[in-house]
Amino acid sequence: MNINAAPEEHTPEQKAALERLSVAQENLVKSREAYEKAVEGLEAIKAYNEAMKPLMAYYDNGWLADVTTTDSIYERPEAAGEDEIWDMHGGQYELMRELLAVSSRFFVRVPGEEEQED
Fold this sequence. Notes:
The protein is mainly α. The protein is about 70% helix and about 0% strand. The longest helix has about 60 residues, at about 10-70.
């Protein structure tokens, strides 16, 4: 097989195969870029989880007392107001739930079966 043949010399099967390979190439480039972002995202999620550990420990053991003690002080750190720590914890839960949902679809996928759109 001459892989350097001019396009007009390609058989119909070769042309079809080259078209499929071209689409695969485009998907490969997109996948590489997405993979790099996914790795960065995973590292960010790990850092987020580590940052939340001491924050939630404080929230569970002393935060409310400190908020109450400083209630009459006009300017306090953001951590004293409107329960943002709890909201961050809820966001963490939702993020992990979504991550598990996405990964579970990956691990139960059977190669060759069509993927269902969400």
